[in-house]
């Protein structure tokens, strides 16, 4: 059964191979010409969309970035004036995030902890929770979605981004991105872990989140730029509210 079917896992919601994969690349998180170039390229678009979805500035808000990695999005939100916490299960990535924060002078509170465990200890403490490019890397996406719902305050916002599961997504996100254009390392994604928008929206509703907007994120290979659109057939983002 595909991971997109959102089967709850009784074991710890982590794939050691995924942690190892990102740990091996940890030193390259902040190199805009490295394997993380796509994340650097889409970050301004993600940040702009997040601000639009919450109806204004991040200034003064308590924000949690689930699966923060090396801190690219977390730092950009902190730079906007948010009080940001980042959690991840890859210690090497977090070490890079902390070191970069010392260099940049941008304060983010990082923790190496599972979303479910953090939610149990910090229920309803955040105005905004982001979980970007992370759900397709865990055994049980629904468990992460439920944790995000627990973490956000009533009336707060939870924002997700992931990859659709269909032939076009396989062709572009795996074949083209990993093997043809080599935008990301081979093996970065696994098709069976991709998540259809209908599956993500259903899991969000079932956890107690109200849907706001579904937005596509496309790539123009000729101009080599990403842009927001209404095409959610490959990369997409979903905003919700508690």
Q: Total helix count?
A: 8
CATH architecture: 3-Layer(aba) Sandwich
- Going across the major beta sheet, what is the strand order? 3-2-1-4-5-8-6-7
Mean pLDDT: 90
What structural category arises from helix and sheet content?
A: alpha/beta
Radius of gyration: 16 Å
Q: Estimate the global geometry from the Cα principal axes.
A: globular
How many domains is the backbone divided into?
A: 1
Outline the low-pLDDT stretches: 1-11
At the first level of CATH, the class is: Alpha Beta
User: The biggest beta sheet, please?
Assistant: 8 strands, mixed
Tell me the helix content.
Answer: 25-40%
CATH topology: Rossmann fold
Could you describe the 3D structure shown?
The structure is a single chain. With 242 residues, this protein is α/β, with parallel strands linked by helices. It has one domain: Rossmann fold, CATH 3.40.50. The protein has eight helices and eight strands, in the order H-H-E-H-E-H-E-H-E-H-E-H-H-E-E-E. It has helices at residues 16-24, 37-53, 72-79, 91-104, 115-121, 141-151, 167-180, 197-207; strands at 62-66, 83-88, 109-112, 126-132, 152-163, 210-220, 225-229, 235-241. Strands 3-2-1-4-5-8-6-7 form an eight-stranded mixed beta sheet. Helix 2 packs across helix 3. Keywords: Methyltransferase, S-adenosyl-L-methionine, Transferase, Ubiquinone biosynthesis. Its EC number is 2.1.1.222, 2.1.1.64.
Concise description?
This is Ubiquinone biosynthesis O-methyltransferase. The chain has helices at 16-24, 37-53, 72-79, 91-104, 115-121, 141-151, 167-180, 197-207, and strands at 62-66, 83-88, 109-112, 126-132, 152-163, 210-220, 225-229, 235-241. The protein is of the alpha/beta class and 242 residues long.
